[in-house]
């Protein structure tokens, strides 16, 4: 459904709305307050509500979004997304609510009460989240079939707002809060019960305030007059509408209980309509479950404030809740004011979202330019080879993880993707390795099941009564394993099924039944929509009326889950229904099919398919697998990139059957399954049958007819949703042609393993596909055996026989036996030549080669001579074998034969593309680079016509290889990276070895060693046990190139290089890649020569020469040059002469340069110059030619890559003395020009402002001074074409006096250098003026300088570095061999550059100074940290009545304070739970002091501190003479506390006998002293405390259950100090105020952080002792060293409170811990710490300021 088709003008009005939303319409007044409704295409057409938020209200809506996401109630809307606009506005996306606003009553009491219960439940969830709604009114409550929902959260947390008539008195005064919500609830109940709100106008409410609470009674009596309102309901309304907020009933748990009691009375025993019946539990299922489970902090730390990771993997099995984790991560980012843009997006729509249409999800991720976070809600489908799941699971996971890691390194967009646990584990290892290499991090969230406590916590808001939760939690955990996704699904299923008793079996059954169950009517509608176009039209027309609109995407296409549910609804009857529908369409299944799956036979299938034999040409020619060709490293023949990539493309050559074309589906334009009607599918003209219908009918004939009408080369039909189901249940009777077409489709998708399994059971057509699949998976030997067996069949059709012969030659080439393939091809192509060689007249091809079974020769010749794609493909593979088998001269002729056999047919663009590709490879091999590029261009065009996505990628791989030999480093890197992105995007990992070999060569030459290492790791991870020997050999070559890269960086030796390349050459030789092996041996020989191993070098050179083909002139030139150098080093004149004669027979350097082989041409001239004697007159000419070639070569290399490329070329020469001699032979500037300038030279000499700007940008990005100065020197040398350079930077003035300047020197090769004229630098610094000398040796200014003469300097150029009039240093370049190298223009250009360099150096100094100043300010801010945080916490802490020494501002302690408020006014017994030292007695005293007993005694006693024999006397008293020593009667503590409160601490320590006596006292309210008979009445409130679990003691028989019920009516749990470390500053201030009377002590922020990490086993009592210790021992400031050893040395306190689900505190704790560790490791140096953390210095300082100031707690 297009945007233009739906939405119309309404969509234009919703400006800024993302295009994924279609069918946009404005909602009516009142419903959602003027918002919009739309269908979300990213969510399968789900209907949503959208509210546009202007920028000025964005903060409020973000708060509402956060609240909605962390609360749990069925009466609140589901907050789905918060989409930000560029202008600061946003769109709030919530679930669609099908309802209308509440209208004025009078409504039935039961209806009004049920609505009030729903609103109260919603408000309770909001209040427990720590905020309030702010605008409870009828317009914001929607009621419909789905229930009652409280909406419009625009005023969440706001004060002084609301709707007139529903405003609380305090809201009129600018206040509000939870109590105001309760008041509005009372008004809403009156509105529905009586038809009007109590006070519809504010002035009426003001008047009621003047009259007091009597006004409430009067107004309620007036409203209820004439209406039957129960007294208990009116009493509840009085409490809700109390004008004094202190008297209002604000505890919504009590409000809900009283509302439910009233409702039960009204309904005469029936529960609320939205609850399960009273026979079972009451479920309050939320529209969206709050998140709980695995911590998201590690991932968020990498995404906030800006993404630093490009991949967040959510690893877990199905049912683990992966989608929920992805959604929560995205929503958390959307709720941040300054977070990155984030959104959910299905994998199939990622391309559209990132403006890369028609791209797969990996391709879109890599190519996307948007720096945002995209979350995939479901595990995406793996493309190509990655979809293969057969074989070693660990290897499959490793390959997938390697591709994800490689894609993340290239992407700018961050992807959050669900993966299997095995992939997650492999990604974690890959991420650790990447971090070790200094690469961007990869986060892996490994999901875990819910613990028992977490499951109980999840049930708390959704299940009543509470006593049933434990049983349900246990059963759910047993049924689901505790995995969050499966558990939530099971809970919802149990609620829908009204399951009354929790058993694992019952829960599992309910889950299975409810998993997408549909009623029969809706299920039939869904099936019809999947089967026919008419069904889809019916779904559009009647879906909404039947309540089934949610089952379909736009256009009536059924959603996947709905289709699966419909099939489950009918079960086995689906086949019956499908066959009936098939019969109605005139395509009834055959007699045997109707009788059952087992009834049909092969004969019937053949008859249905056209009664033709599988191999009969009349039934359609077999699909021909046409692959790309391998190429030699550095030679341009895209080895596996052509060979394997096209294999995975499964390119079945486009030989469509005539029948297919006649039926209207042939060619590229045939309609596909997206239309669900392929036109006439049979000669009878029956209406189109969709694949879904054919599969559901289990009709092989219908499937075969559907496939026959689909194009052979693929297309839209391969994306039909029913195709995966067909592949899972292939019928044995499916004809061979149809089976082969399906197998070819799998090959095109890169799934060779599945293609092989499918083709195994087929006939000859499938046999060819199976052979191709075997080759693709590295089993060429098995493929060869299968092909030989096919060729033995005398009945095999000629077209298939030609294809089989070609594939046989391809298999021989893969096995390294290309020469055998060439011999066979010659035998069949050139009978006369074969007769001369004695091959003619033999009975079979087997006698010629000894490998093939007995195949009549005339049959083979006839097959290969025929016209068609089979013969064309055979000669294509023959040409490839010729290239590999050293018969390049025959390859061109055989390619011409392939063209002739293909003829003018227009239906085979894929095959034509591969012919052109091999032609390009051949031209590349011959050094005809222009012809090669033209052929590659024709191949690209043919690939586009064929619609093969792999084609452009293959072309890029070929052009990258071409760039290696042409020396175009920039183009090569561009094409190579493009090809790598393409292979990863398509999942073609088996094509990586060849590309990696070429791209790594380019990367090493450009100096990009880190990227080369990443590519090597990717290749190693993707290769498995089934990979071919050639692929493994390529990996060896890649690793050898990495050793060479390390050698260029000075971290390895030429000996190591020689060993690595020799080992790689051996592997390549064994794999049959003879030319690649020769090239590697040549590289090894050169390295051995350079490191002084002549014998080893000679052996390697001999091995190389043995494998070089006679026609490979360029490789022979390389070998001849190496032999010439070896002979010159040995001093053997005869050897030198023979080597020179050999070289003379080969192309000269001018010929090589004309072919584009500039690098080889330069080496040619440089080697000849090195071996000639100094007096040889040819040397100057050679030097000029070499210089000209060098300039041409350098002009093709990007400026940033030139230092690396120059270093690589010079290192390969290995002889610096020879290079210096070559430079000395160049003419001086006063004489003849050294060389004709290249086209780039005039521009370079004139100076390019853009070039200077690029240099400056590169410099200003560098933070390290040493690296910055080295880059300045390199850039100056490049600018002036100098041999060496140096820079001196004066130190900044310090208090300690002057220090030595910083010196950096560099040489031509890009490495460090130590020899330059220090006197020139000193002179420039002293005089502040530039120096230009055309011949320094004869320059009078340097007559006294020994360094000038010692270094034999000719040209010298030096300029001062000046910034704003201040001299910073000097920049110097020289050239020892060229006189007059520079003039005034060069001086002016270097001065311009020096200004930019000085600016970059000054910028770096300013940044360093700012960082230092930032550290000073941070230290200053640290001194104020405690004071500010203490004041903030004090402001957050509300005033409490008589709480004495209790202090705290965290949510946990504030909840205790609120509970104390409610308990103070009642006399209910209370038990206080808490660890030792948490302040249990303080809480008990606060309860006492806040209640009516405050004037009476408060008596406390520790039951565990008194011996059992004395405890009875202490509590109850004793009479005179009751025991020895009882001289007088003594009252007990109960009597002493009469009228007041008795606090019994550690009540769990009482003996059973004492418990019995205490129970009697509590029950009777009277006490009898020990030894006395008189009974005394007492009035005592008992508050008990324990640090033990009394429930566990009851279970163990250690505590009386009846006593527990008597003393514990209400339980108060005190949090330990380690769970409320945010209160530490407040507590420290409190204790300092108590003990440090002079207020002389302050506490540093670092000390507070150390205290926060401590576990505090002694809780607040231990903290108090610690503060007293400071007062005694510290002078003015408490630092970490002043803390007690136990605190100072203790590890972190552990995990935070599991009940605290707020993200911000957890993220801040993690950030604090990581920053502290980094600062410790860096010794306090913020720059080093920022590097360790992956931040800039500014980013770290910004984080420190935010953390130290406390930040904004938005949660």
UniProtKB/TrEMBL annotation:
Residues 1446-1672 form the Sigma-54 factor interaction domain. Residues 582-682, 1225-1249 are annotated as: Disordered. SUPFAM superfamilies: GAF domain-like (SSF55781), Homeodomain-like (SSF46689), P-loop containing nucleoside triphosphate hydrolases (SSF52540), Protein kinase-like (PK-like) (SSF56112). This is Sigma 54-interacting transcriptional regulator. Residues 21-263 form the Protein kinase domain. Keywords: ATP-binding, DNA-binding, Nucleotide-binding, Transcription, Transcription regulation. SMART domains: AAA, GAF, S_TKc. It comes from Nannocystis pusilla. Residues 582-607, 619-630, 645-661 have a biased composition (Basic and acidic residues).
